[in-house]
Amino acid sequence: MQKPSIRSGVRGVAFIASGVFVFLGATVLVLWANDVRQDRTHSVTVERATPLFAGEGKNCDTRQSSTTVQQGIVLQVRRIRYWKDCATLDVDLPDGHSGHFVLGVGNLNVQPPLP
User: Fold this and answer.
1) Which helix (H) or strand (E) holds 6?
2) 66 class by beta-carbon count within 10 Å (0-12 exposed, 13-18 middle, 19+ buried)
3) Ranges under pLDDT 70 in the chain
4) pLDDT tens digit string along 83-101?
5) What distance in Å separates the CA atoms of residue 42 and residue 115, rounded to the nearest whole number?
6) Which DSSP state fits 71?
7) What does pLDDT average to over the chain?
8) How far apart are CA 36 and CA 50, in angstroms?
9) What is the DSSP string of 10-44?
């Protein structure tokens, strides 16, 4: 009877470790996709003329205003991002342009309310 070699033991550990790695990666991907899906259930109503900023709003960027959205416009939220100092809402305009609102700049009503 032959003893199992150390090499086959290492292969077994590597196989198990790669399985755990794939499982954890898939779990993170599912959690991220669920977060994006939940973000898209929100809508923003502009209560008064509010600037819409270009880009994705990294770190509350308010330097580049792309347009001003007029009162009464309702937009679907594409992504909500929580930063250290603020939150930004990525939206798409009906004309195809996109940008972000910075919460606290302008007057917005988010439905359902954010936590």
Assistant:
1) helix 6-39
2) middle
3) 1-8
4) 888 889 999 888 888 889 9
5) 12
6) T
7) 86
8) 24
9) HHHHHHHHHHHHHHHHHHHHHHHHHHHHHHTT-EE
